[in-house]
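Sequence in, structure out.
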Amino acid sequence: MRPALTTINATSKQSASVIFFHGSGDTGPGILEWVRFLLGRNLEYPHIKIVYPTAPMQKYTPLNGQESNVWFDRRSVNIAAQESKRSMSQCYEIVHQLIEEEVSAGIPTSRIIVGGFSMGGALALHTGYHLNAGLAGVFAHSSFLNRSSIVYESLQSRSHHHLPELRMFHGEGDTLVPLEWGLETFKSLQISGVNGTFQPMKNTLHELKKSSLS
């Protein structure tokens, strides 16, 4: 099923796209408003379209099975937990559709960046390093991968010559997703051949900050 999309179009001629995945319980319009609040304006560029998709409503185990806007189900919010492969595979179908829509509009995968906040950042990592390594780049805010993630398996069997560059940001005071989980994820991706940067953010909880968007 195609997710609802909120978009900020390029102000001139589009030649690239950014797909920005929100965190659990949020929506595309919700994270757009968050970004707008932090910047005092939209995140917009002359040649880049920003796409904010909304995750489907589905049962979410960490909320005792209540429905929420989440990209995939988790057994628990813990780096040591096992991934729900069935739920991830359903999510991948949405991601493939989002990327294919941009490609059909004339934007090559090498001109598409994916990123997100929290669960959305985890989905971006899956997208860039498991589903489609031909993307231009990946960013993740306050995110982590499970230690046994399929992403690491995929990277071990793939050439490292064309992996997207990674930018990770993480609040030093994050208590929902501890900084150590994000750093462990980044180091594991580095070992697997991913190049990029990890930026701890002082005086920051589980939240976006203006400095990571500018």
